[in-house]
Design a protein that fits this description.
The structure is a single chain. A hairpin with a 2-residue loop joins β9 (270-275) and β10 (278-282). The protein is built from 14 helices and twelve strands. α12 (249-264) packs parallel to α14 (318-334). The strands form three sheets. A seven-stranded mixed β-sheet has the order 2-8-7-6-5-3-4, with helices on both faces. By secondary structure, it is an alpha/beta fold. The protein folds into two domains: 14-244, Aspartate Aminotransferase, domain 2 (3-Layer(aba) Sandwich); 248-334, Aspartate Aminotransferase, domain 1, CATH 3.90.1150. The protein binds pyridoxal-5'-phosphate. The site of pyridoxal-5'-phosphate has 12 residues, from α3.
Amino acid sequence: MIDLRSDTVTRPSRAMLAAMLDAETGDDVWGDDPTVLRLQSTVAERAGKEAGLFFPSGTQSNLAALMAHCARGDEYIVGQLAHTYKYEGGGAAVLGSIQPQPLENAPDGTLPLAKIAAAIKPIDNHFARTRLLALENTIGGKVLPAGYVDEAVQLARSRGLATHLDGARVCNAAVASEKPIAALCAPFDSISICFSKGLGAPVGSVLVGSQALIESAHRWRKVLGGGMRQSGVLAAACLYALDHNVERLAEDHANAAHLANGLAQIEQVKVESQATNMVFAQFPQAHCAPLEASLKERGILTQMLYASRFVTHLDLTRADIDTFVSAVKQYFAQHA
Ligand SMILES: *Cc1c(COP(=O)(O)O)cnc(C)c1O
């Protein structure tokens, strides 16, 4: 199968499974799993932070971070398109009693500084207490401009807010901008990093930040049901991914550029954007469902919408991309 729906669809390789098989384990709820401890300290070091904490999912890692930063009745400023706001079931509000203050994202994924400044509420019993600015990098595949991040974080700090980065794909951002991961994490108080996306692990995210923040998130992880036992088998996959699957993200980015170029040559397709491992393209509405079905018959999985997203990853080769593009070409040749 050629699966372009997401970078979450990768399967653990034999070498990754071998690393999992060999993992030394213990009960991590007791803090006894040496592989989990090694993953947490390794990721903290790579991100330039004091401490790390292993989570079963990025959703839980983000939520525990929000709950560590904000108390009941506090508020976080976030983009309308941000994962922590739009794609996590409203967890901050539902489970954290934290009010989101969503702002419209600019086309490059940023939140305009003037809108952030205007959304920060004065200390007044009428208002929720604005406590946190949450950004996302990459967002829709796009790398946030470094200058923007510095300015936004500076603004947040100057108004007494903490800052969190949903860095699910921060490794893609680091590779694309040819910077160390720590450089992209440096401005933020906390960062959540996913291992089950482009890094190719089956499960897992790591939250990094100060010792104090991670201690608070540790308590919330337990409350949220995220305490795991011999999770060293999972942490071993993440350690393997850190060693083998970070630099190679450049291949995914090159494949996404190749895919965008290929689609751009098809008259009926309008490529909207390509950045890191994602391509967004528009297809004639009437053709979306039949095209998706026709591709599926050829073993190509997509989610064809008027505005479709295609994601490259380590289980896709350059030849797979070519197969996909020529299948789309053939479809439109037959349905002109
Ligand atoms: C995938 C993702 C997450 C976390 O998702 P899980 O499926 O819970 O691991 C968070 N933020 C972004 C931007 C993501 O893409």
